[in-house]
Structures are given as C-alpha cells and as structure tokens.
Amino acid sequence: MSITVKPVTPDFVAEISGLDLAQPLKPADRDAIEAAINRYAIVVFHDQKLTDDQQIDFARHFGPIHSSAQRARHTGIKHRLPSNEIADISNLDGDSNVLAPDSKRRLDWLANRLWHTDASFRAVPGALSMLYAHAVPDEGGDTEFADLRAAYDALPQTTKDQIEPLIAEHSIWHSRGQLAVTKYTEEELKSLPPVPQRVVRRHPGSGRKTLYVASHASHIIGMPIADGRLLLMDLIEHATQRQFVHSHTWKQGDLVIWDNRCTMHRARPFDTTEVRDLRRVTTRDVASTVEQAA
Ligand code: OGA
Ligand code: MN
To answer: Is the pTM above the cut of 0.90?
Structure first.
C-alpha cells in the first residue's frame, strides 16, 4: 500500500489513505504525515481499527504525549478509560452509560462546543491532537475546524501590528464560566491556574504566522479586561468566518489529526442521549508560546 495525500482545499485539510495505523509506522510514512500536517493543519484517515494503546503508540511518533487534564478537574469519579494519556471525549460515564443531563462531567464536556485550541490553558500547551471515533450518532456531532494561519493572513496590517506583541491569559475556568459551569472544588481550581500565551505565534513546521486564540483566553495582560476581551472576541469572530472553517462529519473508524498551534475547533450539537464515543491523544508543545519566538 502506498500513501496518498488528497487535499480538501489547497491549504487546509487533507485526507490520507493507504495506511493502516494499527501497524508499525515506517519512518517515511511518519515524515509524509508530518509534512501533510505542516501544510494542511488537519489530516483525516478513514476506516481505521485502533485500540487505545495503538492510538497512543501512533501518537508517540509525533512527540511526547500530553497527559490529560481531565483527572485534575474530575476528582473522585470513576473514569472509563484507564490511561491518563488518552482523553475521554465521549458522553459516557465510568460505567459506559450516557451521562446524565446535569452530570458535572457532561457540563464540563459541553465546553468543547466553544471554539478552542486544546490545552492552551496549560503553560506548555497541546501540539497535535488525534481524535478517533469508536461510535458516532446518526446525525449531528460534527467537529468544525478554523484555519488560524489563513485568518491571520487576512487581517489588515494595522491589526497585525497592534496584536503582534500581545499576551493573553488563558484559563480553563474562563471557557467553563461562559456556560455558567462553575461548580469545581478549590483543589480542582488550584490544579489548573491561568497561564499566559502569545496572541500571534509562528508555526514551526511551516514558518507561517498564525493567530493563537481560544475560548479559554479571558483577557490581554496589561490591558483593561473589557478591552482585551472584546479584542479576543473580535479575533475569534474574524477567524471563524465560513471561508476559514471546515466541518468534519464523523464516521466510525475516522482518525482526525489537527494542529492546535494554528487551528481552533469546536464540537457541534447532537442528541446527547445517543452514544458518541471519541477518544483523543494529544502531543505536547515544546514550551509555552511566550518562550517561543513569534
Ligand atoms: C477535543 C474536542 C470536539 C468534538 O477532542 O478536544 O474538542 O467534536 N472535540 O468532540
Ligand atoms: Mn478540544
């Protein structure tokens, strides 16, 4: 089997075929996947059959794995997936039953419906996320992706100059707060304190400049909160115009990789009494964006 990379648009999203990701990954194929990610930011594989361990092993070829922050904010509950290297993105509880409408984990999970980039609320954020579909609902539950490189390129030069030096404060509690999901313990709140991240960064694999914004970003450091928040809202609104957005409709067996350093994503609604079982492994960035050259 030889690998084929088929672009969905000239610069954003490609489908890769000709690979069984459960098999050991050849260096040339690894490099071809990485090159496709650097160029297209999102890559999609269909018809894969992966255990959690195989998904983790595959991800490890692309960098160290970011441990999931789910356990830090869901203390004292039963977790469905044993490994801390895989995030449970499903609507299932520790016994594989659909989450109750008012369950804390479901309310926390609903924040995936807000535009975000994974783990920007941690000092060293996420790099590549790899989300694999075990079960999907008949209808709805797409994931949308926004191209923050193209969105940056399309900004007027005056805005580019204005935002170049800015640092935003990111906190997971800010995204949850937007949905009035605030019932966390002192210990949970303390485990994930706010962190600074650049608003503009350079994507290392492509050299392209990109916005780096998310619903976790609450304000701009050194600016009145209201001004910074409005600026962030404007940037997210700009970046999520239709021309920058691709929607992925899931099929069981899909594995989608997105580059958190230059994209945002959000889940779309579905009937949450139906099972949607997606599981994610994310690699760690090399450092805080504040420590990386813009
Ligand atoms: C995630 C995420 C969106 C979705 O896995 O990080 O935000 O559609 N998922 O489930
Ligand atoms: Mn996410």
So the answer is: yes
